[in-house]
Amino acid sequence: MDRSAPRVWTPAELDGVLGSWTTGPGPLYRRLANALYGAVRTGDLAAGDRLPAERALAAALGVSRATVVSAYDALRERGAAASRRGSGTRIAALPRAAVRPVDGRVRGGTSAALVQRLIDGAGVISLSVAAEGAAPELRHALAGLLADGGLDALLGQSGYHPAGLPELRAAVADRYSAQGLRTTPEQVLVTTGATQALALAAQLYVRRGSAAVVETPSWPGCLDAYLAAGARPRRVGLDEDGVRVPDFRAALPGAALAHLTPTFHNPTGVLMSGPRRERIAALAAAEGVPLVEDLAYDTRLWDEAEPPPVAALAPAGAEILTIGSLAKTVWGGLRIGWLRGPAPVVERLARLKTLADLGSPLLDQALAVRLLPGVDALRAARAVTLRARLALLESLLSAALPDWHWDRPAGGGALWVRLPDGADASVFAQVALRHGVELVPGATTDPSGTHDTHIRLPFTLPDPRLHDLTSRLTAAWADYR
Asked: 232 CB contacts (<8 Å, ≥6 apart)?
């Protein structure tokens, strides 16, 4: 991290760079010291930076003050910190050979710890991803591709389709047209998951210092795509119908783009109503602000159909990018997503994608072509399983943790739980990690502090895992209290 002046770290900021520090071996103070030393080596903690006071950091991490004092002592013994009366504990300069390059975290972002635990594969029940294993139909699609000559036809091509396999672009276009959003293949760009689609939109529209209108709370991976491009977020809250119209209108002037998750918002599960979608589209068009609607989180729970995409309800001339993927319906490992928009905009985005990777994997795209016509049936089958797991988790939580509160989501795969008595969800997350559960606290989804009492609890786990999860959370809550 390249900084011209030493930084005074708050406990919450330091927590964001420590990652899964409690899951390592050895006594707790040693695990914390190792995490701090690792942050010094990567450059996240730079020479001269001041660490938080022991008592404040202990409160934020949910540990005793003695644990932090011992960790700071161990850090000083390794030559990575120094203390002076009246000026606290500061990071000392390490020899150049001991410092590793920075590791790709987004400055000001909140997804670093979640991503690091995906990389580490730590032995905990991770609730950072609300996803299941692959749908059985994926195996059938792969077998069909091998059996009916589809693979031979694919292998006979050059292998380069920067904008996407033509058959898949046509299939996605047909699907949107059937939803009331008339689309041609030229309006579709195939991406390597919805995450790349977000990154491309940020690359196209955002310049350093420009404003981006985003929901709060919002999933940190989405927000970090815009922060990485240099955006300044303007956060707009939600109600039961979606993003609040007066706040959205006030945030639009001068913005580079607006990003919304109208269908089963992550993490709240809210479904934006049809009239609200139409109003939002009209406001964005009137201000000339491009709108990115993220429909990748399309896990339906109930039989009621969703309203059409926002782009289908927009006035003529509105610039809207509609993002989708097969990650939630089929499998997260099938890294196929797409975005739909005006053909000239899609062409510009395709050029940016070509610079990044020359096109998404064709074998995955060929499987997607075969799977896309059956997506609605797949969603219906998933919904049966998810409803049963939702009912089980609600029953377990109501019995074991009756003072926790949530609203049943319209869709998605997680509960947005409010902890009682003003509990600090970030501190509770640290305690839960020591009980083998990785939580996503509200502060990760909303740095403003409005949702500091909330946690996100996916119900996508198998039944035995949900029982185990509830037992661990109950023990962690007793420990926290």
From this structure: 209, 210, 211, 212
